[in-house]
Amino acid sequence: MNPLKIALLQIAPCKILRENLEKGIKYCKKAKEGGVDIVLFPEMWSNGYNIYDRPVNEWKAEAIPADGDFVNAFGKLAKELNIAISITLLEKYENAPRNSLILFDRFGKQKFIYAKVHTCDFSVERNLTPGEDFYVTTLDTSCGEVKVGAMICYDREFPESARILMLKGAELILVPNACPMEINRLSQLRGRAFENMTAIATCNYPETVPDCNGGSSVFDGVVYLPECEGSRDSCILQADGAEGIYIAEIDLEQLRNYRENEVHGNAYRHPEKYHILTDTKIDKPFIRDDYRK
Question: pLDDT tens digits for 172-183?
């Protein structure tokens, strides 16, 4: 089986939507030249995650519909290039926008719309509508089928996000990002990949973008191999801070064999003992009751 090739578009946004559309198309076409199967954008590409230090109503007005021209252009491009494209946007949605990822397969079919569940409610993202669920779909690629899910940036901070995606069958988790990728956040991604035996690909903005530093990464989720003494580094790609296209190859056959034989993921869990996780009647520490006031 050929490896699954994923391109992380670690690129800086432009000033307006049309320019982001044009630049996004340009870089998807460049990625295609590298023979990739999936393209991943950084978080909220439609407006470059430009929501800080601005009036809320100003950036809310930049929200665009999930079925509008910007998004549809990437659906058409996916079919034209015969690659899957995961485009990100500030999505126009009911009373308040959502921070969303829309995944198109290589035939231009929309596979799911994922809205960030764990919005950063301690900051300006409290003005967004959080998503309600996590989704996994089967992508038909040039190297066969692969089960793909998504989470966005701060979702990484919650083990439940990746766990749910693993339980729904995800072999690869796509993670758009817009924050500094320092050792602790990278360690979280490494941990999510390790504990779920799942590949995780994260695409960040380059260091030229405020409060970002590049560092896009891919962890393949495979820690132990028969030919390796002890554990191996599951990080198969770690970008520097520069703008560019970063391509990783994920060995799906290796991942699947590993999942069949190793002890992590869902192999030996005891979910019947985890009732406190969902019991709303039990007092729990650190709850912020006033975060939406």
Answer: 999 999 999 999
